[in-house]
Amino acid sequence: MNINHYYKYDFEPISKNLSSSEIKLSELENIRYIENPKYFHKETAYKKKIDGKISYYYYFSKIKSVKASLGTRYLTHGLDLYKGNFHAQMIRSLINYCNLPPKSIILDPFCGSGTTLIEANLLEFNAIGIDINPIACFNSHIKTKLLDVPLDFLISHNKKYFDINYYNKKNFTKFNFNEILKINIRELFYLFIYTRAISDETYILKNRFESFKDNYEIIIDILRNYQILKKQLRLSIGKTKIMHGDNLFHLKLIKKNIIDCIITSPPYLDVIDYISNDRNQIKYFINESEINQLRNKSYEQKYESYRITEKKFWLKIEKFLQEAFRILKSNSHLIIVVGFYRKMHENLSRLAKDIGFIMEMIIKREFFNFKGKKNHDFILFFKKI
Ligand SMILES: C[S@@+](CC[C@H](N)C(=O)[O-])C[C@H]1O[C@@H](n2cnc3c(N)ncnc32)[C@H](O)[C@@H]1O
Question: Are 131 and 111 within 8 A, CB to CB?
Fold first, then answer.
């Protein structure tokens, strides 16, 4: 499909260099234009202008750190360094494709750094996120909360927040995510900047204290610009609930037929060891034996042989798909992004169909990874009829 196709509707694309999968996604999201053309400039992910009106996405995409290397790490998406996260623009278009009624609930049972949750909230939907990694849960909680907390609530001149020893003395040996949620957002905000400094120390070998100071400035700047925009556009933001732990445990607690849409991405078998990646940050909250307990429940856990790793992984995925089918409303979508690794998309599609999902389509998405190498993954669209 030629990009000029958009002009038929008086759409101006966000970029003239969209890949073929992006063009496909940008066509899929047009269902929202057909539904309510007046509202589409607020929702689109791939158009700069709709009928002469600048899209909200275009404004959002300008608010990010100058150092943000990835094009779509705008607003609160780029505040942490979580590895293996989604492309926010893609998620926005997928939510649009699902064409949900107001107040819908979007679930991401492998929420990682919260990409689905943030986009759901920016589109005024409510979201539920689950992850086994405490840092993923903590970051997702903060990044969704910051979309709707005035800056005055966050900024403090209390010197304790700028003293690294203050954080070193904190003791979370009895980590309970529900207890963390009770701590006021200002306290959590500074703690978030501190844990981000720990990850800088790990990934970019930057001194923790320097990182804290730099990140504080950058984050405040992003939030200030966002809040000005939020006021101008009169944005209303949905709410997110995060649950920490094994998703097979939490999904069982969700009533049947109540979720409007699931957009998610499980680990790609054992390609990324999420717990090890964030070990230094996680250690701030919990001790080694608790870390090992989490690892035992992770989908990406490595066993003594690859054959066992693979077998246990697919058993878990099958159980997850069964739960997803149970909690989704009829006529709702389950959209899963998987890597091309070991033909995961084929196995997953077969299992989902056996459970009762209808396969709507597959999009092959090509992209350049962080090393600049050509890569691709698959977006699998299932529907519960
Ligand atoms: C591909 S990542 C998801 C990244 C996410 N889409 C984002 O944008 O950041 C997969 C996630 O699954 C999580 N995970 C692994 N085992 C899990 C389990 N048993 N329950 C819940 N989450 C789990 C990992 O911690 C990781 O964050």
Answer: yes
CB atoms under 10 Å from CB of 293, counted, come to 11
The whole model's pTM is what? 0.95
Pocket of ligand 1 contains residue 382 by CB under 6 Å: no
Spatial separation of the C-alpha atoms in residues 36 and 182, rounded to whole Å: 39
Minimal-distance CA residue to ligand 1 atom 1: 267
* Ligand 1 centroid – CA 277 distance (Å): 12
Residue of the nearest CA to atom 22 in ligand 1? 131
Does 43 contact ligand 1 (Cβ within 6 A)? no
Domain residue spans of the chain: 62-384
265 Cβ below 6 A of ligand 1: yes
Start-to-end CA span in the chain (Å): 29
Strand pairing of 11-13 and 47-50? antiparallel
pLDDT digits (tens, 9 = 90+) for 285-326: 888 888 888 999 999 988 889 999 999 999 999 999 999 999
DSSP 8-state secondary structure symbol assigned to residue 170: -
CATH architecture of 62-384: 3-Layer(aba) Sandwich (3.40)
Q: Which residue has the tokens 């693979």?
A: 310
Which residue puts its alpha carbon closest to atom 5 of ligand 1?
Answer: 112
> Which ligand 1 atom sits nearest the alpha carbon of residue 113?
9
What is the pairing mode between strands 105-108 and 126-131? Answer: parallel
Average pLDDT, the chain: 91
Who contacts 350 (Cβ-Cβ below 8 Å, separation ≥6)? none
